[in-house]
Amino acid sequence: MKTFIIYLMAAIAAISTGRLYAQECPQEVSTDPRNPSNPDRPELENTFFWFPHNGNNHNNFDMRIAGGIHYPSMASPFWNLTSLQVGSLVNLENSDFWPEDGWELLKVNFGYLNDGTQREILPSMPYMALYNKYTGTMRFLGMWPNASDSWQIIRFTVSLPKKKLTQDNNGADIDATNLLSIQGDAAQPLDQQTDENVYEIIAEYPGISNASFFFWFDMPVAYDPCVCYNDVAITLEASVESTWNLTIKGMLDAQVLQQGVPTAQNHSALVAKRIIGAAGATAAAIVTGGAVIQTSQFTGLLDIFSQRPGISNQAQSNIQLLQQTMAAAANVVYDPEKLEWRNTVTDKAMGKSDWDKLFTGVGSFLNSGVDYLNPTAKASSPRTSVVGSMTATGTATLNSETGDFVYWGVPGTKWTNTLEEVITNTPANEPGPGGLLPEVPLYNNPLGTFALLKTPTLKVKSISHNLKIWYTHPYPEHECSTNLFTELKFFFDSEYFKYYFNPILNLNLDKTEILASIVVKTKAAHVSNPFINPICCEPLSTINSTDALESNYYIVCGSTEEIDVARSLSEGINVLRGAEQSEVYTSPVPIDYINDMLGSVLINGSANLNHYDFFIRFTLKMSSFNIGKNSEPVRNTQIITFPVNAQVSNGQIPVEEVDLVNNWVHDYLGGPSYISEISGSNYFPEYISISGVLASSAGEPAELLSSSVIHLQEGANLQPDLRLAIALPLAGTHPQEPFSSNQIENFCKNQLPDLTYQANDFSAKAFDVPSPSYELLEPYLNYPLGLNARIFIYPNPVRSELTVRTDGAGIDRLTIFDMATRPVMQASPGGASLYRMDISGLAQGLYIVRAECGGEVHSEKLVVAR
User: Fold this and answer.
1) 808 phi/psi in degrees, rounded to 5
2) What are the C-alpha distances in Å from 788 to residues 244, 722, 804, 854, 855?
């Protein structure tokens, strides 16, 4: 107890000496309109309430848009419960828009300048952009009130205008896009650069009703917090789209049907390559014997189908002809103004004779496509006949530009003159970037990247109940009295967590500080009194169970460690210096001590964490030997937040047991468990989860073995002969390394699935057994396909073993072909019903496995993805 109090008081003292911000600015900047602060540009202090407030703009705000339309009482998207598009943000169980939730305002344009005067150029797409300083998320909300059609989606293109910036010391140019990167997909391979200049987002378009104007999207964005020495901006363009379905189905004389023609402009949406794509799906369906093929996916399968063993020469010829036709059609676009099709390569209009030439030879697939696709022919029949047994689906689209060009300056930027320094042809009445600067920058990724190889599990290291703590809070408004707390200390497996330096910028790094902390988000947050921070002792990261529904985020204090890059170099870690290097990422920096950096979580009350989501947040401060403007070193702050699994249940790990008789899953607390078999035919809406634990040692919580999970699609039924057998070692407490069997989808359907191993999405899991006295029983599934022989393939990435099993005639011969139809492996099981084949010699890729069983031949696709 004494040790804990000393630790706690030390944390208070550290917080009292200075609050930590990602950007080390001399004065705070806040866009909270209740208490705004903008020391550098006081005339641009934010006065706009984007959230409901008891004072100005309680539930609405004044808006003027292009065309002179005035909405004096436009309902706030965060308070308008009729808007389904933002309903997940505004419902009382999931509120996520208050400054207390971490949001800052980047820019707003509802027809008024910051001082309340009307803009000379009114927007046709009014909007507001916010940024969450806890999660590094940009949220954009907009509307298009003048829309005259019921569009379905809105497509945004976010980009970064390039500008060369000069450093004072040596005159070297720095591209602004090196300082600002849009984080499109967080899961990027380490051999790919992550700094993107253009990012596309699709949001649902709510319609044209005033009650549901708003559409929105969230996007992670990154930039260097020291761009206060530079000029950087974000631009955004948008278009709205309407989509409808195309379906091809039938036997032999199939038809392409257009469903729900929205307008007379259908010809401009139903482009040639989509119809040809449908024909391609037909061809694919013929080859695969009637399988369902998505038109957006079949192109990559044509080579596979054409080279598949047993495909006739005529079928290969047809597929090759179809590929050539598709290549030609890809160069054809429709000009809605001239009502003609045009070849983008030759820039010539295409008449009916050109269409005849284009479709010559594919009449068996598109015997009436010419008449239907030619807009001047005024085709009367909205269909295209095809030949084949198949079902294929696709979409057609119609789009229209919104006409608005949205832009704003990066928060933290100190503009020297006007936005025209970055973007030309800027409206004269735009006051720079809007002047709304958040407290902390968006997280960035210009100097390095985190490699999260697997979602870590945040495990409980120790639990201390009923801690009686007294302390003085550094901020009087958050004074706390004596209370009883539960302290949870966590750790996670840092083996799956690496940090890589990125030498793309050609910067010489000096030192990097890392702050590791835990972010806790309540799953049900009701802001009943958003104007008083409800977190008792926030810097101490206390979660009050009574007030847990009052706010969303709690930053749990951690500690700061420093990486000395120079020392890392001497220890053999190659941090690249220089643009001549071809590698994108260097060796990882060792940060195995991160577990020691994670602070404790204090919960006022029970240690039940079912109501919280956990994240780990890293704040990195990096310094460079390079000198930038004003003789300041080039600094960088990087913030990254990623989710983790949290497991705790009063000091023991819960074990799920499946009750097939009563069809329900229950938890029980206990020690070792052995589950030998599951069988039954009951309906499970989601999945079956089976877990086990190792024996406890010296009173410490046991290590948790990962669940063995079989995912079922909704509506699927377990077959009576399904078996799952797992042997769990009951002795020893050393960690068990997991391995996975292959991903198995749709196994209750009457078709054999593609058997693909996916490392991060387990369908069945088992564990290496350390003691030879325990035998590992491999899970297997058995389901009827209506065939005399049934083939089951289970590639195991650890054993590198292919398991083939039949329950009919025995296996006489196995052959594995590559996609060039060359046999790469063969085996003669001698009529065995179960045969295991060593495939460790196969490279990663796609193969065909052919099994000869009692005179019958069965072929299945094998994906080797180690």
Assistant:
1) -120, -125
2) 42, 18, 15, 9, 11
In sequence order, the 6+-apart residues with CB closer than 8 A to the CB of 252 are 387, 388, 389
As a whole number of angstroms, the distance between CA 246 and CA 255 comes to 10
In terms of C-beta density within 10 A (0-12 exposed, 13-18 middle, 19 or more buried), how is residue 154 classed? Answer: buried
How far apart, in whole angstroms, are the C-alpha atoms of residue 543 and residue 600? 11
Residue 174: exposure state from Cβ atoms within 10 A (0-12, 13-18, ≥19): buried
Tell me which residue has tokens 């720095």: 174
Helical (H) or strand (E) element with 490: strand 483-491
What are the residues facing 483 on neighbouring strands? Answer: 469
β-sheet bridge partners, residue 823: 817
Instruction: Classify residue 9 by its DSSP letter.
Output: H
User: How big, in percent rounded to 5, are the helix, strand and coil portions of the chain?
Assistant: 15, 35, 50
Is residue 233 exposed (0-12), middle (13-18) or buried (19+ Cβ within 10 Å)? buried
Expressed in angstroms, the distance from the first to the final Cα of the chain is 49
Q: What mean pLDDT do residues 822-838 have?
A: 84
What sign does the dihedral 576-573-797-449 (CA atoms) show? negative
DSSP letters for 55-83: SSSSSEEEEEETTTEEEEEEEPTTT-TT-
Distances (CA, A) of 590 to 217, 453, 454, 503, 574: 36, 15, 17, 17, 12
Q: How far is it, in rounded angstroms, from Cα 474 to Cα 459?
A: 31
Residue-level pLDDT at 97: 75
DSSP string, 180-235: EEE---S---TTS---BSEEEEEEE---S-GGG--EEEEEEEEE-GGGGGS--EEE
3-state class (DSSP) for residue 687: strand
Q: Determine the Cα–Cα distance for residues 29 and 50; give it in Å rounded to an integer.
A: 17
Tell me the pairing of strands 633-647 and 457-469: parallel
Alpha carbons 74 and 59: distance in angstroms, whole number? 8
pTM equals 0.40
- Give strand pairing partners of 805: 792, 834
Longest alpha-carbon distance in the chain: 91
In sequence order, the β-bridge partners of residue 210 are: none
User: Cα–Cα–Cα angle for 863, 865, 866, nearest 5°?
Assistant: 140
Predicted pLDDT of residue 241: 64
Say what the alpha-carbon torsion angle 202, 207, 208, 212 is, to the nearest 10 degrees.
Answer: -100
Of 112 and 684, more confident: 112
Higher pLDDT, 643 or 451: 643
What is the chain's mean pLDDT, rounded?
48
pLDDT in tens, 489-546: 666 655 555 554 444 333 444 555 666 666 666 554 333 322 222 222 233 333 333 3
Q: At what angle do helices 313-329 and 272-287 cross, to 10 degrees?
A: 160
By C-alpha distance, which of 743, 764, 752 is closest to 790? 752
Cβ atoms of 603 and 490 closer than 8 Å: no
Q: Taking 80 as the threshold, does the pLDDT of residue 864 lie above it?
A: no
The answer to whether 515 and 560 are in contact (CB under 8 A) is: yes
CA 470 to CA 797: how far, in whole Å?
Answer: 53
pLDDT at 30 > cutoff 70 = yes
What distance in Å separates the CA atoms of residue 323 and residue 306, rounded to the nearest whole number? Answer: 11
Q: How confident is the model at residue 800 (pLDDT cuts 50, 70, 90)?
A: low
Q: Which residues of 108-146 are buried (b: 16+ CB within 10 A; e: fewer)?
A: bbbbbebeeeebeebbbbbbbbbbbbbbbbbbbbbbbbe
Place of tokens 């990027």: 188
Cβ atoms within 10 A of the Cβ of 708, count?
A: 26
Q: Reduce the DSSP state of residue 186 to 3 states and report it.
A: coil
Render pLDDT for 203-250 as a digit per residue (tens, 0 to 9).
Answer: 655 555 554 567 777 665 544 333 333 344 566 677 766 554 434 332
Comparing 578 with 136, the larger pLDDT belongs to 136
